[in-house]
């Protein structure tokens, strides 16, 4: 009988679909990268998703975040994402957490229950917490490096963190992971040199918000990074080597 995942099953096979249906994946960060990763995982047949993000949908998210529309403005991102997943696959078990990951909140998660962890958070400290927990428990993890200030999605690559270049965030992560004795980490990163936003526009943003200005971003780099991440998770869970 045909179903919502029939076309995927043609590619992966019945055993792989059973594996995906029985897997729980945690996605930390449901923004430009993580939102697309969540959606692709749901559309791939992953049976259980934990989605973690403390932010609400803002007007400036609409240019690049799949859960951000005028109808979701002001909603928690995880609530908007959970509703989308339910509309895609009602059988997917979704647990949402309106939590900012930090040293104070990391203890609220039982990482041993996860079959895979997706790191799509913005801060180095939170990334390091996730990588350390994954290494401690032997849980597979993939981390998103910098997708801001980039325009070329074809420059995105999957690599071990110690084989990355150009990306400033990856450079910081390499340094910090060496100090912690962590010898490997699968990442998605870009070899495109970061572009410099217009200084005049940055000043306007600072005057309006009064906070540190986030990186410039577009619709077609973070989204591709998120889809690449989802693809790596699916292939790894199913044992597909290619």
Report on this model:
This protein is α/β, with parallel strands linked by helices and 242 residues long. It has a single domain (6-145, 194-238), classed as 3-Layer(aba) Sandwich (Rossmann fold). It has 8 helices and 7 strands, in the order H-H-E-H-E-H-E-E-H-E-E-H-E-H-H. It has helices at residues 6-12, 14-21, 34-43, 77-88, 124-137, 168-179, 199-209, 222-238, and strands at residues 24-28, 48-52, 93-97, 116-119, 141-144, 156-160, 186-190.
List keywords for this structure.
Rossmann fold, 242 residues, 7 strands, alpha/beta, seven-stranded mixed β-sheet, single chain
The biggest beta sheet reads: 7 strands, mixed
Proportion of residues in β-strands:
5-15%
Number of helices: 8
Determine the structural class based on helices, strands and strand pairing: alpha/beta
The succession of helices and strands, N to C, reads: HHEHEHEEHEEHEHH
The helix content, as a percent range, equals: 25-40%
Distance between the termini: 29 Å
CATH architecture: 3-Layer(aba) Sandwich
Order of strands across the biggest sheet?
Answer: 3-2-1-4-5-7-6
Reported by name, the CATH topology is Rossmann fold
Q: What is the name of the CATH class? A: Alpha Beta
Question: What coarse outline follows from CA principal-axis ratios?
Answer: globular
- The residue ranges in which pLDDT falls below 50 over 5 or more consecutive positions are none
Under CATH, the homologous superfamily reads NAD(P)-binding Rossmann-like Domain
